[in-house]
Design a protein that fits this description.
Layout lengths: L5 E4 L3 H12 L4 E5 L3 H11 L6 H7 L2 E4 L3 H13 L8 E4 L10 H4 L4 E7 L6 H7 L4 E6 L4 H10 L3 E4 L5 H28 L4 H22 L8 H4 L2 H14 L4 H18 L4 H11 L1
Helix pairs in contact: 1-6, 8-9, 11-13, 12-13
Length: 288
């Protein structure tokens, strides 16, 4: 089956990565556009295609990815629609986790089929994104007429997919943020506790990596809540109280977050069945 031509509007990390990876999978990239000409030209040179105006990209490609910042997707779509750049049967895709396909409505009004195809992945830099994009899990939301193409794109990226209702997109994105963004905050929290114990920051971060990786491996192997270990999972009141007493002395600014996370962890331990309801109440009392 012939693969559709692809245009990229927005050559940041995600736009660059999707263009490079799709080209490696046999898709022809007809052009790329970005208000930052240097970034645009770098990607165009790498892909062996042309740096264009957004209107030229939209008019020439069968599939148009609008991979600008979230705040610019709607504006870019409106401007292109105002200039009559979309056409019936064309597929327009954004890759935002927070926005639904509704932000592409001006394109839909001109006959385009609009989708949100979001990879549940964290992209810190282009080269890293190129490595992790293939094999990721994607959410697909939008016009069902575009689902076959969305599925094809994901499968060509060696990924998996699920469909999501637009009303659920904020909760979906919040869940992704907690696991990705808040994990950074959680590691920072643990690092600060180790620093308060007199361990240099660089040593603390390095020391925590095997623990983090081991925990992720446990989650992958036995799932949640069975992967939960530690004093709360054991119902060890004395250890939790000692944590809090010591933090009150040397790191009082970290106690609130510790209590909040601990309280949520008690609920996980109850679901695991490693503590009784009575012990859970005792732990919650200590944590409050």
């Amino acid at each position: 089956m012939t693969k559709p031509t692809v245009g990229i509007i927005g050559t940041g990390v995600v736009g660059s990565a999707i263009g490079i990876v799709l080209q490696s999978k046999g898709y022809k990239i007809t052009g790329v556009a970005d208000s930052a000409q240097e970034k645009r030209n770098q990607l165009a040179d790498r892909l062996g295609t042309s740096g264009m105006l957004p209107s030229e990209v939209a008019r020439q490609a069968e599939v148009v990815f609008i991979t600008t910042s979230d705040g610019a997707i709607g504006q870019v779509t409106r401007e292109l629609a105002h200039d009559g750049c979309f056409q019936s049967g064309q597929v327009v895709i954004h890759m935002s986790g927070a926005l639904t396909s509704e932000v592409l409505e001006p394109a839909a009004e001109q006959g385009a089929v609009c989708l949100s195809v979001h990879p549940l992945q964290s992209f810190a830099a282009i080269e890293q994104a190129i490595k992790v994009l293939p094999g990721s899990v994607f959410s697909i939301e939008g016009n069902p007429a575009g689902y076959p193409l969305g599925i094809r794109l994901v499968e060509d990226l060696e990924g998996k997919y699920f469909f999501i209702d637009k009303k659920a997109k904020p909760l979906y994105h919040a869940g992704a943020c907690v696991v990705s963004n808040y994990l950074v905050t959680l590691v920072d929290f643990g690092t600060r506790l180790l620093e308060a114990a007199g361990i240099p920051k660089e040593t603390a971060v390095t020391a925590l990596f095997p623990l983090i990786e081991g925990t992720l491996a446990n989650i992958r192997k036995v799932g949640i809540p069975q992967a939960l270990t530690g004093p709360i999972a054991r119902g060890d009141l004395a250890t939790i109280q000692k944590h809090i007493t010591t933090m009150e002395e040397v790191a009082p600014d970290l106690i609130t977050l510790y209590r909040s996370l601990g309280s949520q962890t008690v609920e996980v331990a109850e679901r695991k069945g490693s503590i009784t309801g009575e012990r859970a109440q005792e732990l919650q009392k200590v944590l409050r």
